[in-house]
Design a protein that fits this description.
The chain is an alpha/beta fold. It contains 16 helices and 16 strands.
């Protein structure tokens, strides 16, 4: 089997989970399995599971890290991908990553991603995993992981990547040595797993064939809305940083990597202090100072989020366009299509269907299938402009009720 897709599930809204599974099962993936690890949900997903029939295992609630590693132990694929249960992928996301993995014997393959809210989808153009082509070997891989100092989370999350399974097993073994797996980690476990994966990887590639939609909503488990949740996040984050620093020694860029990890740690201290200050919690402010071991606390700065200031709206109708490609793929025969040839995403999808799937596609203005141009509402164009983003960073500090209200309205 080529690929195992692991989904860790915990009380995700049924609609999100259904969309997640549907996006995977209706994609171009072949020779794959889907493994769902239900980490003690109280919601009954029986109806959804009957539609797709993934490998489903329900456990006691032990946290994200335990769920992710358990799924890994069940995986039969030579490669592994993680998808969060409230997220989804575009029509041709994972299959090209698997193809590149086999063609180039790569350990890690990265693909593009975008933020998805209730009203819009936006990709971060200045994110280097999206805006550049990466082909790295050996020690350069971990150096690339650390050099952005946590400002581009596309490097340390699991969900926009395909990994060689044996690489993740090696990472799991290293994590278990630290006893971190016993900490019921629900935050920053991605950092630990990807750190060790990048450390041991011999070859990394990235491609640009589609998008992973990271869904932003109030029900996310990473949303910290109480003092205890923030304290837990602070503890887990610092545990991860300590482990990363201790395990950077044997890289030829060790000093540079450590400096960047410490800068990343400082970035996170500003983030957590911003939440604490916005809530007026003096005890929590003291906790941030103590755990991050900083004399002077500072709030988040605009440059902390600078990498996300240049975004590209994928269009309010992007998912509708992608649905058309799923339909063409399912149809699987000669198809006459009318489309905008200048749209890079559409061109890549058409090219894939024509070459990889041997579907004969002809262009005609009077075609049986018309792929519409991307459209975005005036509201989304204004709210997601560079100027609006810059103003938002200044006027709506992290942790504030104003920022939460703004997010809910996007």
């Amino acid at each position: 089997m080529k690929l195992s897709v692991i989904i860790c599930l915990y009380n995700t809204e049924k609609e999100h989970f259904d969309n997640c599974l549907n996006s995977i099962y209706t994609s171009t993936l072949k020779d794959f399995e889907v493994i769902v690890i239900d980490d003690g949900s109280t919601i009954d997903y029986g109806e959804i599971l009957e539609k797709y029939h993934p490998v489903y295992v329900k456990t006691n609630n032990r946290g994200h890290l335990a769920a992710r590693t358990y799924g890994l132990m069940l995986a039969k694929g030579e490669y592994v991908a993680y998808v969060d249960s409230d997220d989804s992928v575009t029509f041709n996301y994972h299959m090209p990553m698997v193809d590149v993995a086999y063609d180039k014997n790569a350990d890690i393959i990265i693909n593009d991603w975008a933020f998805k809210t209730a009203s819009t989808i936006a990709a971060c153009q200045s994110d280097t995993t999206i805006s550049t082509d990466l082909s790295l070997d050996g020690d350069e891989i971990l150096n690339q992981y650390a050099k952005h100092q946590g400002r581009q989370h596309s490097y340390f999350v699991l969900w926009n990547k395909v990994f060689k399974r044996e690489l993740l097993l090696k990472a799991k073994a290293e994590i278990e040595k630290t006893n971190a797996i016993m900490n019921r980690m629900t935050y920053s476990e991605d950092m630990l797993i990807t750190f060790f994966a990048f450390k041991f990887a011999k070859k990394l590639e990235n491609i640009h064939t589609g998008y992973y939609f990271y869904t932003v909503h109030n029900g996310q488990t990473i949303v910290a809305d109480t003092s205890k949740k923030i304290k837990d996040q602070i503890d887990m984050t610092n545990t991860s940083f300590d482990i990363m620093l201790e395990n950077s020694e044997d890289n030829k860029h060790a000093n540079e990597i450590k400096e960047n990890i410490l800068a990343w740690k400082t970035l996170m201290s500003r983030t957590h202090y911003s939440y604490a200050k916005a809530q007026g919690d003096k005890e929590l402010c003291s906790y941030v100072r103590e755990r991050y071991n900083v004399d002077k606390l500072t709030t988040s700065k605009p440059k902390d989020s600078f990498d996300y200031i240049a975004s590209n709206l994928l269009g309010d109708n992007f998912e509708g366009i992608d649905k058309i490609f799923r339909f063409i793929y399912k149809k699987g025969k000669d198809v006459s299509v009318n489309y905008d040839k200048s749209d890079e995403y559409i061109a890549k999808c058409i090219g894939y269907l024509a070459q990889k799937e041997n579907i004969r596609i002809t262009f005609s203005k009077n075609a049986e299938i018309t792929i519409p141009k991307r459209t975005s509402s005036l509201k989304n164009k204004l709210f997601h402009s560079k100027l609006a983003y810059a103003v938002g960073l200044t006027l709506f500090p992290k942790g504030s009720s104003l920022r939460k209200k703004l997010k809910n309205n996007l």
